[in-house]
Amino acid sequence: MDIIEILKYIFLGFLQGITEPIPVSSSGHLVIARELLGIEAKGLSFEMLLNTASLIAILYIYWKDIIEIAKNFFGYLAGQRDEEAKEDFKYVIYLIIATIPIGFAGFLLKDVVGDNVTVGFIGVMLLITGVALWIIQNKNGEKRDGEITVKDSIIVGLAQCIAIIPGISRSGSTLVASMAVGLKQKNALRFVFLLYIPVSVGTALLSVSDLFNDPDMNTLWLPYLLAFIASLIMTYFGFKILKGLMENSKLNYFSYYCFALGTFSILYQIFWA
User: Fold this and answer.
1) What is the pLDDT of residue 195?
2) Is Cell wall biogenesis/degradation one of the keywords UniProt gives this record (predicted)?
């Protein structure tokens, strides 16, 4: 494999990493990039590898929160009854509730949503994502972590199911839903990315066999590895970009981006594909 091909894979890793946290659909970007760069997509093992890199980055970002929540959760189970332990116990339950819908949807639709998605279809879904972000951009509710309800969790969980469709952003759909049910933006961001962890862990575990059975692994291990590293690093910076723009009430920037890329993708499908 020549250096140009290796650089293409590194670019895909870069693209996955930077777009995974921000609400612009990483899967949609990979479809567009593969089309433009001429990289054939063979199964889901490469994409799952990049998603695992993003998962590790999110675990690093939230490791203190995860340890604290886990300590209080198991402490509550062991009889600890202070308010913080009770709140974190309920928080974990709400994360579990929000995870259940995507588990069912992924199982039922795993053979329906595949790799054969056109750039034009991705463009339409990006426009939908942009509209949703535009509608929600200025909303900042009052609910904090301890005020999340079962209903809120179900709504966010159902919103996450929509992101099975390529071109619909997972972080975007869940952020929109979290803010729509009244969560403060800071708390919505935390809930969305802690919710990302169990889903991604499950996906990573289910894709291990696909990765090791990948017939191209013997020849592609180096570009896969470099793409993994690129995705890992850029996910961290992508999260920082999202957090910074949310803190400055500039979610509309992502709307503009989705509108621009969505329009380009549709035009590409019509005139050049």
Assistant:
1) 95
2) yes
